[in-house]
């Protein structure tokens, strides 16, 4: 992509042009574009944030794709800090090894392997592992942990060369990466080429039903190109000769879905009936209708008013408020809801590289987590709400000393 931004005119899955626009959030800088103090003076490039719903297959996408070079040039997202993510990876590895009776000779390949966190769990079972990830800095970290990694963007060409060198994979995993992929057809071509005849393909992504029902508008940002439900996903599976043999709804990231697929020609497992149940649920909950998305947009506007009223009311009472978790979703919430340093003194975050920097758009300073108990602000807005339990557990001392937490979604709540 030569330009900085590409507009979506056809559905990423079914190519339909029947696209209904909703949730126009305005524009903001890319949400992981943290700034040094020197950069605060410079103008930040902003990109539109709005959604379209495909009335043919049901896929929800962003209206635009920002050039990946801009978003991922300095990609520094490393998942290893969060306990609940590690538990989920551990659970995925043990499920796959036991359910599919993996042996020492079995090959597990992770697409978007990041720093090798998921594969480390597979490694402990003695199976062969290989990561594929375009971020060279992360591939190096993975290699240091003993996770061999191909530092390339996954596509059918890379898939074929990996298959030639290592053989077909018994398991291919893709967790929290499919939302980032623009060309899903190319991805499936690659998975088809790399997966052995009786291999399983395991995906995990945030589930659109949870996003809509729990008002998780702040998980909508430039890196996440698509928001999936089963119906559009099945269109892709049919096209490439795959079918779902198991589905599990997971609490991770506010509500995700794990899908296990096989090639239709495979003899392993059998087609899951749960898919029809999920599609019935999606239909009943209105995921295939415009009105659901219009109602969602209205709820987001109401939430903006409600949260601002709460926070600005506290400021009037001379209370001090800070944020917790300089997550991308937090940067979406503060930008879209216009919550700046007039409300939040600073944000604490466990990620060392974010500390000392400023958030994109709102320029809120980021400090280490230890500052919370040292400084004892009256209220702490948990921006990384997907880790709220873990964070409150870690900060018992703050609570004991009288500090209060606010969780912004689905509706603002003081804890
Ligand atoms: P994520 O939802 O994009 O993974 O972002 C979560 C952010 O929250 C990340 O910047 C790290 C931060 N965080 C903490 O500061 N403390 C914690 O205990 C946890 C789990 C996350
Ligand atoms: Zn479509």
Q: What's the oligomerization state?
A: single chain
End-to-end separation: 46 Å
- Calculate Rg over CA atoms: 22 Å
Strand order within the widest beta sheet: 10-9-8-11-12-15-14
Return the structural class. Answer: alpha/beta
Walk me through the structure.
By secondary structure, this protein is α/β, with parallel strands linked by helices. Helices cover 34% and strands 22% of the residues. The chain has 14 helices and 21 strands. It has helices spanning 68-72, 83-99, 117-123, 136-144, 156-166, 184-194, 208-213, 230-240, 274-284, 290-316, 328-336, 371-375, 388-394, 396-400; strands spanning 5-7, 19-22, 27-28, 47-48, 51-54, 60-62, 64-66, 107-111, 128-132, 149-150, 169-175, 195-206, 226-227, 242-250, 256-263, 321-324, 344-348, 366-367, 379-382, 404-407, 413-414. A seven-stranded mixed sheet has the order 10-9-8-11-12-15-14, with helices on both faces. The longest helix has 27 residues, at 290-316. The mean pLDDT is 95. It binds thymidine-5'-phosphate and zinc ion. Thymidine-5'-phosphate is lined by residues 81-82, 325-328, 349-351, 369, 384, 386-387, 390-391, 394.
């Amino acid at each position: 992509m030569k330009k900085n931004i590409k507009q979506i005119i056809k559905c990423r899955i079914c190519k339909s042009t029947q696209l209904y626009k909703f949730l126009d959030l305005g524009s903001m800088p890319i949400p992981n574009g943290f700034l040094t103090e020197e950069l605060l003076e410079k103008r930040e490039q902003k990109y539109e944030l709005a959604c379209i719903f495909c009335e043919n297959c049901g896929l929800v996408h962003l209206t635009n794709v920002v050039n990946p070079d801009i978003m991922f040039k300095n990609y520094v997202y490393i998942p290893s800090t969060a306990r609940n993510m590690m538990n989920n990876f551990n659970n995925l590895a043990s499920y796959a090894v036991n359910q599919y009776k993996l042996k020492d000779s079995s090959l597990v390949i992770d697409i978007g392997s990041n720093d090798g966190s998921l594969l480390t769990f597979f490694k402990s079972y003695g199976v062969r592992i290989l990561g594929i990830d375009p971020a060279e800095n992360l591939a190096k970290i993975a290699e240091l942990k003993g996770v061999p990694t191909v530092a390339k963007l996954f596509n059918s060409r890379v898939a074929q060369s990996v298959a030639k060198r290592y053989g077909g994979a018994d398991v291919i995993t893709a967790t929290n990466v499919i939302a980032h992929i623009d060309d899903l057809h190319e991805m499936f071509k690659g998975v088809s080429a790399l997966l052995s005849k009786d291999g399983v393909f395991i995906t995990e992504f945030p589930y659109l039903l949870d996003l809509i029902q729990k008002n998780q508008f702040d998980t909508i940002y430039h890196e996440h190109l698509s928001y999936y439900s089963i119906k559009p996903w099945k269109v892709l599976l049919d096209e490439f000769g795959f079918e779902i043999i198991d589905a599990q709804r997971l609490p991770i990231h506010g509500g995700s879905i794990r899908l296990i697929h096989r090639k239709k020609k495979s003899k392993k497992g059998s087609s899951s009936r749960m898919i029809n149940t999920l599609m019935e649920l999606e239909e009943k909950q209105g995921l295939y209708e415009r009105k659901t998305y219009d109602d969602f947009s209205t709820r987001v506007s109401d939430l903006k008013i409600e949260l601002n009223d709460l926070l600005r009311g506290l400021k009037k009472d001379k209370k001090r408020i800070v944020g917790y978790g300089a997550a991308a979703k937090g940067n979406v919430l503060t930008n879209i809801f216009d919550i700046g340093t007039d409300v939040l003194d600073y944000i604490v975050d466990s990620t060392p590289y974010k500390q000392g920097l400023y958030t994109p758009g709102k320029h809120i300073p980021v400090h280490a987590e230890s500052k919370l108990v040292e400084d004892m602000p009256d209220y702490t807005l948990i921006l990384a709400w997907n880790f709220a339990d873990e964070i409150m557990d870690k900060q018992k001392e703050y609570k004991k000393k009288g500090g209060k937490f606010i969780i912004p979604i689905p509706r603002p709540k003081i804890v």
